[in-house]
Amino acid sequence: MGGVTSTMAAKFAFFPPSPPSYEVTTAKAKEEGKLGMSGVVLKESVDVLKLDTKRGNQVVAVYIKNPAARLTVLYSHGNAADLGQMYELFYELSFHLRVNLMGYDYSGYGQSTGKPSEQNTYCDIEAVYRCLEEKYGVKEEDVILYGQSVGSGPTLDLATRLPRLRAVILHSPIMSGLRVMYPVKRTYWFDIYKNIDKIPFVNCPILVIHGTSDDVVDWSHGKQLWELCKEKYEPLWIKGGNHCDLELYPQYIKHVKKFISAIEKSHPRHGSGQIMDQTGNARNSTDFRETSTPNTDQNEKCRPSTDKIEKPRLSTDHREKSRTSIDKREKSRKSVDRLEKAINGTDPPEKARNSIDRLGNMMRSVRLCNIDCFKPTATVV
């Protein structure tokens, strides 16, 4: 079963840039042994790292230190980018948000070894988190996990296992891989990144950001995930925003800064500080929508702004009909067998999309994702 899941993940979720946009280099005499990256200008406050994972792969990571930072962001990027393309965005986020930032490439991306798979990404992010703890002395209660698109998968998986985690940011997140393509109403064993089943177990404030015109991962994904959050923060629904251009909108950086400021003022949470056990096998998930289904806000208006984290809210709506808004653009499938056949017969698209990062007065071109990342191009019936 795990093999089928990994095959589906590789087919629909992963599009590593080929060739990679950078190479790992070794610095010269003055800083002997220090790693660098070709194609980007690294500041003195930036470290390039190679980290070993539990599955035998070696992932490349970048740590950007901000001397004014009180919090550290661990950023999991989208599915068609690597560190060479994301570096400028990472540096700007670190500067504008006044945070330390750690970004990394999944196994099989950039100069990271191995092949992309769902389970590999879980071990990748855990290795990066361990590095923050052991090398940089970052405490769990000072970490914010940031997941963009596919990156919401490893982000939420790790978040469920960190009881003292400070906060989570989900940027154009997916409910699950299968739900991006088809309006299924339950979780199947062969689905990937079952975020909809994991998010109720995250015990920290969560900010959800999504574009209302996202034509890759429908806006309903962000709304449904936000409804299931235990500790909701005012979401950011960017009117007219698509899947890869949310950084272009001035409200993006403004709202994220507001969230970071609120988190800095909040009290760190207490807990064991231990990562819960995780095996190499896919974990069983429960479809929470069968027992408790929250209402989805169909209006584009956000709730009144507040700098304080909202108290956890319990869902009381048990009606299944609120789930019918998921991905209205797709037709319902008649059977699971036909669904699996369609999945196995789909060829992934190749064309990646460019996005522009514009923070403050700076503008740079950054390839952030594959605009057709989840959409089947051919179906065998």
Automatic annotation (TrEMBL):
Pfam families: Hydrolase_4. Residues 275-297 have a biased composition (Polar residues). Residues 267-337 are annotated as: Disordered. Gene3D superfamilies: alpha/beta hydrolase. It comes from the Eukaryota. Signal peptide: none annotated. Residues 69-177 form the Serine aminopeptidase S33 domain. Residues 298-337 have a biased composition (Basic and acidic residues). PANTHER family: ALPHA/BETA HYDROLASE DOMAIN-CONTAINING PROTEIN (PTHR12277), ALPHA_BETA-HYDROLASES SUPERFAMILY PROTEIN (PTHR12277:SF191). This is Serine aminopeptidase S33 domain-containing protein.
